[in-house]
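Entry:
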Amino acid sequence: AAEPTPQRVRALDTKALDEFLARQLTEKAFVGLSVAIVEDGKTTFARGYGKSALKADVPVSAATLFAAGSVTKQFACACVLLLAEDGKLSIHDKVAKYYPDLTRARDISLYDLMTHVSGYPDYYPLDFIDRRMEKTIALDRLIQDYAGGRLDFEPGTRWSYSNTGYIILGRVVEKVTSKPFDQFLTERILKPVGMTHTVFEPRKGHKDLALGYTSFALGKPEEAVREADGWIHAAGGLFTTPSDLAKWDLALMEGKLLKPESYQIMIAPRKLADGRVRNYACGLGIVQRDGETIIRHSGAVSGFLAYNAMLPRTRSAVVVMTNCDHLDAGSLNTEVVNRLFQAQAADTPEIPKIKGPAPREAALDLLHQMQAGEIKRDQLGEEFNHFLTPDRVAGAKDRLKALGEPEKVEVENVAERGGMEVAVIRFTFKNTKVKGSLYRTPDGKVQQFLLYGS
């Protein structure tokens, strides 16, 4: 069933997360950024950073709407599953029941569309708006153009991401209900879940709507051109806030929206015709990590990036949204998930509280000491003090000083070992990267600070 077994979980260090996100805004030049964290069934962190619009100098607030992009796909799948629960359709219905003239329509099911194994070519495979998408298109015209010709592969034999299938799914919902997709979505999901700051395909100028930005070849952010009407729909038309997406995550994980059997279909990795299994279910990616299941999906439309990840065992989630599409937000998403994962990982000892600065600041200070060849030995544990001989210090000074000041200092991981805080730090210099291993006991003494080429 969808209801997870209750587990005691530790709290995420939200102060450190806030500091990290504020640095990211500057270091990676995000225009605006909004993040929400759910821990043990409650939203414990929801903050915005930067601007929702540059010219108007409008700050990101808790109510600022960002495009969810392909995170919309999990909502589309839920709509189909709700209709299956109502007896209005079956996920095993063939596409021919709704669009008899499409290629191999009698051989491709709705479930094939939901899990990206249909073979229908993707109409949106690029990361910029091409000339086609600057012009309005009717949904059925798009469907005919991209699902009425040659398939990319035999249905069910391969997995290949295809937005085309989700346009078909959105129209199937409309055909079955005789309602616009957004009306059914609102009635059956948004209102029951309490997503009051979520809209479907809003017009430009909608209240609280962030402007999307892009950039070319490291240029300054410029306002992005949105896809014309008809090009997004159920494949990525949702605009929302991280806090509202957090409500959706909880409703899904806690079984408040779908029946247990529907939820299991939604999170089951897809098996291909030859027996291989893809770690993708219905609009959701499924990842196993250290015995934990993480359910996640990213989203991207012109001017926006989004990321949604759930940890069902602890009823926890991470939502990250930004209004610029030209940045690599993957490392940020991974870092936020890692922080939550490490705080809640099963069978992991509590990370001790350390007297003194945070790992990043402590590691940077130690690097500076080594570059200067002047070690504050009263900060070191007895064995590391002995290990750090004058010859070692002198050699390290020559090598490290030549690197100069690091351009970036990032905490990759914080864990526990032997009652110590163990932090992995990555230093990015102009011409190289160096990884640091920092071990500290609760009294703040440095028991190890080793540097490695990275």
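The first helix runs from residue 14 to 27.
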